[in-house]
């Protein structure tokens, strides 16, 4: 990528601040010209948005394997004081031709936070991934919780093949997001339904954190030997109410 010389250090600061992680793109080389900086990143083999469009939707085993890498990258950023903001499938690219390994790229517009204060006021982003609190508030919102909402949109899209909230008219789309009502098709397994609903909660404080998502039993159930996609149910699950003073995160897993 090419950046103005006087701004390039700000643009690549998130890459410098982040400890190395296998699911996050690294800077390979920087060449400085008279007025521009040329930043070279690791080679990729296509992005997740295009891949899902070509596949329509993914089988749960593949979705779990790839989504776990997505969440791992986001959790690493959050634990390193970086909030991603405009988080979407297109920002994840494949590291290999077999399309089994993912990396997060495009960190130039992320937010570096201080301590535990992840309050943001920035409202830019892809409409399909925006969270209700961003639409509803005139002040600040939790950047990490908004990232988790975007993860919920991603997981739904991987398993269903479309966004949970969609409409050609932006005002109608935003109205649907504010209500937070969506349908999950019958082919999605109960544990996957549980995880989706744990992420797409209207109340930000009731969503799982990125590190907690990695502990959800859906991953263990789907990735264990012998699992098949025939293990699906037609009955929907209701995510148990989460009480913020509870230290046992398993209490709000289905």
From TrEMBL:
Protein kinase domain residues: 1-219
Supply the source organism for this entry: Halcyon senegalensis
Q: A GO molecular function for this record?
A: protein kinase inhibitor activity
Write down the superkingdom of origin.
Eukaryota
Q: What's the protein here called?
A: TRIB1 protein
Q: Which UniProt keywords apply?
A: Protein kinase inhibitor
Q: Which family does it belong to?
A: Belongs to the protein kinase superfamily. CAMK Ser/Thr protein kinase family. Tribbles subfamily.
Q: Which GO terms describe its cellular component?
A: nucleus
Determine if Ribonucleoprotein is one of this entry's keywords: no
Cross-referenced SMART domains: S_TKc
């Amino acid at each position: 990528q090419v950046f103005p010389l006087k701004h390039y250090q700000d643009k690549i600061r998130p890459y410098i601040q982040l400890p190395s992680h296998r699911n996050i793109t690294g800077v390979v080389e920087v060449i400085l010209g008279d007025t521009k900086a040329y930043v070279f990143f690791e080679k990729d083999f296509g992005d997740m948005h295009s891949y899902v469009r070509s596949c329509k939707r993914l089988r749960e085993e593949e979705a779990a394997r790839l989504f776990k890498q997505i969440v791992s990258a986001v959790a690493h950023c959050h634990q390193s004081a970086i909030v991603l903001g405009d988080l979407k499938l297109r920002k994840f690219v494949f590291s290999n031709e077999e399309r089994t390994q993912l990396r997060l790229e495009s960190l130039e517009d992320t937010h570096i936070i201080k301590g535990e204060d992840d309050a943001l006021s920035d409202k830019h982003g892809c409409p399909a991934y925006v969270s209700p609190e961003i639409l509803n508030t005139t002040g600040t919102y939790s950047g990490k919780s908004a990232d988790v909402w975007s993860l919920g949109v991603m997981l739904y899209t991987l398993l269903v093949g479309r966004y949970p909230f969609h409409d050609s008219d932006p005002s109608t789309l935003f109205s649907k997001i504010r209500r937070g009502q969506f349908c999950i098709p019958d082919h999605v397994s109960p544990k996957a339904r549980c995880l989706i609903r744990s992420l797409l909660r209207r109340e930000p404080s009731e969503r799982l954190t990125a590190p907690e998502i990695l502990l959800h039993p859906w991953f263990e159930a789907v990735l264990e030997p012998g699992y098949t996609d025939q293990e699906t149910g037609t009955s929907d699950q209701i995510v148990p109410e989460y009480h913020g003073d509870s230290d046992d995160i398993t209490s709000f897993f289905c």
